[in-house]
Amino acid sequence: MGLLSHRVERSEMKPGDHIYTWRAGYTYSHHGIYVGGSKVAHFTRKKEAGTAGLDSAIAVSSLLLSQGGSDECPTFPDCGFQLPDSGVVLTCLDCFLRGGALHRFEYGVPAAAFLAKLRGGTCTTARADPSDAAVRRAMHLLQNGFGDYDVFENNCEDFALYCKTGLLPADDDGGIGMIGRSGQAASAVGVPLAALFSTPFKLLAAGPLGMAAVTAGVYCAGRYVTDIGVRKDVVKVEVEDLAAHLGWRRAKAQEAAAALKKQQQPEKKKAAAKSLLPLKRKREICV
């Protein structure tokens, strides 16, 4: 287990593995569930205007260009399959990796090993469910979606974590709350917060090295308490219940949007009527 991540070979992969690859020079990582047959289910932005989600569209285009401009993926003819109202996409492993190295996310790691990791989004203390459960959840969400994509609140790592564990944060009533937040996002937010919260300890720190040690300690502690394996506000959610919950939320959002549109229509009519009043008066004067 490396301090940054856990690199594996393709021959070591098994269906149900949570895999990821680093992008933009280790700036961020993209996560997915390997479902077998060189295919990966992963979460990106929803399909719009007849195109695949942003990440999958770029990935497929990059591979096609490298293969001489063929109009279909040479590995998987249906690469980039994605339903219009779903952010979950199915691509081949090559398109998922986009030329990057393959890494496997680790589950059930000891607290000491978790804290020793230099980056978030590579492991969790939570225990994984059997591999077939991860594949079943991923394929179910491919058909039903995983809500709206959000970099900080609901991203590709959150999708893969749910597929592997079935765990989601609960609301105050014990029901399904907001999806997220991933270790990668917690890591990104944690660095500036660690620097901020460690400032009061500056007087206790012996020089720059002591300050760096205090900041690192605050950062690691922040990552640990937000880990899904440590949090106490998580519940086990069946994928069918999650799909129904997301469908209910989507219907409520559509109802709210329709009600708002209906409310705005009379206001627009009033505004249009007011704009016609000066024109009407001019005509009366001319007569």
From TrEMBL:
It comes from the Eukaryota. This is LRAT domain-containing protein. InterPro entries: LRAT_dom. Pfam families: LRAT. Residues 20-172 form the LRAT domain.
